[in-house]
Batch of 2 targets.
Target 1
Amino acid sequence: MSALALLARNRLALGGLIVMALVVLLAILTPLLPLAPPNVTDTGNRFLPPFSPGAPLGTDHLGRDLLSRLMWGTRLSLAVGIAAAFVAATIGAAIGIVAGYYGGRTDNVIMRGVDMLMAFPYILLALAIVAALGPGLMNALIAVAAVNIPFFARNIRGITVGIAHKEFVDAARLSGMSDARIILTEILPNVVPVIVIAMSTTVGWMILETAGLSFLGLGSQPPVADLGSMLGEARAALITNPHTSIVPGLMILVIVMAINLLGDGIRDALDPRLKSGALNRPLPATLVAPDRQPESQQNDGILTLDNLQTQFRVKHRTYRAVGGVTLSVKPGECLGIIGESGSGKSVTALSVMGLVASPPGLVTGGSVHYRGDDLIGAPYRQLRSLRGSQIAYIFQDPLATLHPLYRIGDQLIEAIAVHHSISRAEGRKRAIDLLNAVRIPNAASRIDDYPHEMSGGMRQRVGIAMALANDPEVIIADEPTTALDVTVQAQILSLLDDLRRDRGLAIIFITHDFGVVGQLCDRVAVMYAGRIVEQGPTRAILDAPRHPYTARLMACVPELGAGKRRLEAIPGLPPPVDDLPPGCAFAPRCDRATDTCRRGDIALESAGDRALRCLQPVQPQEAMP
Amino acid sequence: MTTPALRLENLSKTFPLGRRLFGPERPGVRAVHPVTLEVMPGETLGIVGESGCGKSTLARMLVGLLPPTTGTIQIEGRALDNADPAVFGKRIQYVFQDPISSLNPRKTIRQIMEAPLKLLHGMDRAARAKRIAEIFATVSLREEFLDRYPHEFSGGQAQRIGIARALAAEARILILDEPVSALDVSVQAQVLNLLADLKARLGLTYLFISHDLAVVEAVSDRVAVLYFGSVVELGRAEDIFRAPRHPYTKLLADSAPVVGRPLTAPEARETELPDPLNPPGGCAFRARCPRASDLCAAKVPVLDGAGGRHAVACHHPLQD
Amino acid sequence: MTRYILRRLISAIPVLFGISVIVFAIMALIPGDPATAILGSFATPENVARLNEDLGLDKPLVQQYVIWLGNLLQGDLGRSFNLNRPVLDEVLERFNATLVLAGTSFVLCSILGIVAGVVSAANQYGTADRAITFVVLLGISIPSFFLGMMMILTFAVNLRMFPASGMWPIFGDRDLWALLRHLTLPALALSVVATGVIARLSRSAMLEVLRQDFIRTARAKGVPERGVIWRHALRAAMVSIIPVLGIQAGFVLSGAVYIEVVFQWPGIGRMLVDAILRRDILLVQGGVIFVAACYVLFNIVVDVAQSLLDPRIKT
């Protein structure tokens, strides 16, 4: 299994596993080993130091062999801790799954009870249980298990609620499954990894807790000792004979540390996010490969991308998200980039200001010129001073892209204040002006709203206002209306169109919608598998597409007003960008493709104001397929 | 007259808001106002509306995943009053919006496909294998996919699997809840065409829910426009957006981006949906409506389509 | 806000009631005759019977509970037979000492833990991250009582930097300086585990937040990296850190039991352990319910802090 392989690759976890395996093996073999009897007192030989003959670790205050007691104690501590973990995990998970799956009243009653138990600092409950049942190792086990049940129950309930609302559970219900069957076959397999993670990260803790109760004299009772009670008994002689304390104490430390290392390894191995690199901290700016070949500026324009290449490197795979994009935008111009998901259009946009999450993102080639300066590989200070002041972004989902805990006014003021020193009152006035500029009604009062208090359309207006805050020259809008309803989208598009005409903004507008491009953009670039396949004035491209992909993509999209009809589909799927075919990436889906299309690189050839990457272009007189 | 394949009468859903500790009980949020609709055998009824209009709530009631607050559902003339999804499952099936999350990540496609055959139809192993092979051939999926796990598939393939599962139940009515909105346009067309072929071949009846006007228009025979939980307009697909009668339908049609149409905000008043916790009286659309009058505030318009086939719930419909 | 606090206080009433039921029920489970346990095995049967009557132990359980709860609400937790003084007096006195120790540790571990977590996340896989991760791992793996003993051995016995036990010097002034000298070792030992837990959680919460879209927005605005980390990311991460602080407060209180025993700190934890070993049931009962009630109130403070931080919580 890949999870095991992953665990084995984690050296710390492997170390933990080896230590634990050794300890467990020794604990199992203890009765067979030639050890001195652990509980026979020999007061003549009290407090022998370590390395004494016949007592490698010395003896304790009653002259008992420490090594033997250590081994027997370890055996006991391990058994009790692991048993407690199993009991707590099983009962807690069962409670959590039932509460989370059934929800409603069942959930309410169960979780109230759990909350009640969690209202105790855990040791109070354990102490109360031990007080009631009386000191003893078995009772300590019960106490520790009982105290930990609420933690498992709450954790597993949360996971179960998430799973129970997934569509596959609905689908299972429609397949005729009963509740019991759904819990066993749909929910449980998805919860088990979480239970395993929770257990592996708490076993160490349980061993500590049982040892703690024994240390206090409430767990194992003399003469039998676990590691905790050994430490407790040795405490009186801490100053005179520290070795009797250090020996069991270190053993606990070693065991718990090994278990924690192993537990972390198990967690990392089972957590799918770690595998995909989704828990990496993105750096302030996208990394640039040291062997990047910068390009000289090829077009005029305020912002030009010259053979820009961005990759994602995850493990041994290289995803060529952007495979050499060249484009430019002039002041007052709106350039559309259109493509399907995975075509690299968003990554292209984010690469400009180094906003591609890195790792795993990496700019491997090409340049981005802004007013003649190459931004790729520019120092972070320079990049930061341009971000938001000269080149600003509008993102797709306005709820996720605004900070949920700051008022929108504060977020707007911050956008100004990071580039200009400005008083608070001034900033507030500017922010209200900005909100008015994007036609938010009652701007003066809405400035104190939090993002969650606004509708999607209003939030996106705030996003636009933020982009306008420092009067940038270029705005890069990454699918700014995709998350919005069609009536709201129309409002936002017309707002953007007005703003760019009034302010002479250069806009790069990323979308997957030909309708939007047709209405807003002067020029359009069509992307497929990380490269531009066709570029030119919007009207010309929409009227007479030359690249077969453009033509067929347009034919796929139903247009309003044509009634019920059969659509022209493109067979097959876009190629994965970690395994691009040689030659034209569209060739496998293209009915015009010839053998030459599948060989060698095909260049983007410019002719007049249009550019095309195709050997078999659609001729203008041809009817569309 | 033929019996409708699916008939809903006064179907509505109110979500309780939870009780207050003191004071009167809260009224609850009305997600779907009483709806009466008929879908004829072999017909595709499109349901279109923006987010929050109640279209998914309606769909989930139809397949028994959500008990309706009022009203009845009849399938092929027989009332379906049992809220057991297993009973629903054999007669009406559901295709989910998100194809990946509708497949259990820890089961193979074969296990997923077998569940309805085993549980709804009690087939033995050999019969199941034969049937799965048949269905996979119908939706053009390769049988080698059967032993793979859902994460190995693209959205389009996963949606084909979702459709195959719905077919396995052998229900004659499919509720398609935004079945292509998670897919790219080039794949979207493949799935829509597949759905059209299946319908023709197997004599299915569809209820097709989407926010995308053009898609709905392209696949439907008739279209119902939903606004704030109510059907505001119902008519033939070729007419409804070409010649809308309800001002909201017109707003929708004007808002859809169309190549070559100049960009103008079609709405003078830049308002959005009313607050469901505090619904307005009268017509829910009146705050955004250029034709609103006092009558609209006083009286809720009812869907009136008695004579013609093009029904509208408006006091001042267009083209009158 | 006042309304919210009020509502949280009201909603704590059933929890407190539940706690009283649980505590009473556990104590009622005690096998054998509590009076015998209290008086010892040499008590005469008459004495046992009289005590049972005094304690109301001859009545049905529900009635016993009602009487007990009534007394509880009047602040009467009964009398400790071993100490021969009212339970409440003893509990209050001991709780003060615990509050000094646990409070200091809690503040210490919250600040250290969060800072360590943020620094660790901001330098993921860097030297600082590795060092902090290792120290944190050591911290959550070492039993606090063992750590305390080793600290006594090193800093008190060998280096003679701090006193080995107690809260106050036996001779000399009971001033702040003396308290701080006595407090240093136990407070440090007590905060180690919680610091580790908080640091781990803060690190993962920060990493989670740093991938969110609004962090990208902050960067796209040109916010300097320091502002991105400490203003944007930490604020959002606090939403998941604060509830853990509430839970960790319970762990600090729990850990205080061991530390008090090791350092002979005159706190409520040591009182409870002694009371259990001496079967002083009323003292156990009173101590447990008092601390639990304080913890419930503390968690209301945590909730209020959370609602101040996160405007999405309805107040």
Target 2
Amino acid sequence: MKKVQFKSNYSQYLFLAPQLGILLIFLYWPIIQTFRDAFTIQDAFGISTQFAGIDNFLFIFSDPAYLTAFKFTIIYSFVITLITGAIGLLLAVQANNVMHGKSAYKTLLIWPYAIAPAVVGVMANYFFSERFGLLYHLFNDLWGFNWYESVYDAYIYVIIAGSWKQISANFIFFLAGLQAIQVSVIEASMIDCKSSFRRFWTITFPLLMPTTFFLIIINITYAFFDTFGIIDTTTIGAPSGETRTLVYKAYMDGFRGLDLGSAGAQSIMMMLIVLFITIFQFRYIEGKIHYN
Amino acid sequence: MTRLFTSNLSHLILFVGISIMIIPVWMIFASSTHTSSFINTHGLQFFLGDSFQENYLRVLLYKGGFFKEITALKMFLNSFIMATGVALLSVVTSLMAAYALVYYRTKYATFLFWLIFITILVPLELRIFPTYSVMAKLNLVNSYFGLIVPISASAIATLFFRQFYRTVPDELLESAKLDGASTWRFFIDFLVPLSRTMIVAMFIFMFVFGYNQYLWPLLVTSSEQYWTVVMGLKMMSGSIVHRFAFVIMSMVPPILIIIILQKHFIKGVFQDK
């Protein structure tokens, strides 16, 4: 914290007021409403509301469709994190390695970051449609790919669509992480260890740990929340709900099914997951990695 | 010799990576310059056709949507208003809130910080229906205000500004205090100019964030007059080449901003020198 500060007076609250005002009306109020929804049951017309205890929570956990969405979301976040992290790191190491054209490579790889997930999904759709999708026909010739019917093929489709733009974010952060490593450390390691492969895994990679863990969190939140636009423009949950994420299912239950109690309970479950990941990051990971 | 080999291998891997990024977009672009009947019989194209001008002008000026009330041009205007609004509002409020958090001594400091930090854990997707019902109660559905303000209820930029202010040397405030600068003067004359790079970075970040919103505009606009580009992609009617053209155009604004301002963006986010 700062050693020199202003004394607290009314002007402090004037600086805070605009942000806190917006948060109060458009964030805290809706969150309180979410908790109210989650612990009450409304009749079909929304006229009477009854306290329901944890019934909504018991209901979602007895719903096989919720468990399917839960399983898919876990698999999806894990695979996207792994694929985009690995490819992002591979490209960042190469870009850090080359003598010429470093900044050109940066520009050529940074732009997909800016594309909306929904736009990526619409584009992926053209490559995976039965009518003229190149990848659909390529994979179909190879192993009979058909995402309209096969769950695993549908997974492949949404994983490719979901990973594509996220490689860019991983590349940018890994490259920045690599460039922050001091040259003297690398030079010293070159004397001690001839093999560049071993040098990478014993020296460079451990120094990249802060970046890696930061990206794990970024990728998981991306797979949880930002992929709504991708699912909604690609499989829409096909074959029969196996590629719905938790956010997608909560939206469908609330919007199409008008079941706000269940949607609220699902939102609170997701808040708990996010809270868990954040605490895990702060408590466990931040203490164990070395910052240079 | 091995040095040359590994360097060439690096270029090769990067070339493959860039191809994976560029080829899909290029093919949609190339296909968007053909006629629909050609695409329908021959599939996606790798080479350019002759209908670029015709297709793109039609998409921009033709009234599409369910009720045929809005042109793509109007959607671009809406997206631009929304993205700029989100970026301005969140950058200004965050800049001020972070100032109050870092530069004032108060016993509530920790409480105030958590009050703001906790909002990171609750993205809009988790409170979308209650937020909608708040908007409906306040009669803000189908308005620019309704598109902008709930998306700006985010404290990510506050955390970045807070982090940045903490690296500003204490001597700056000391000397400003000696000169008799008020809290407001110190903020406007010293801190804001000093935060320029960070402001640009956060502005780009929030602009792209606002432009790329999909779910919220879908929910909060029932009138076609407020449709944005990204949500309009799914709603627009039209033949296949017009859809291709619209997809390509929808990517242009955020990509241009990222490429043109990438130095500021990277500098701000990673706080390099």
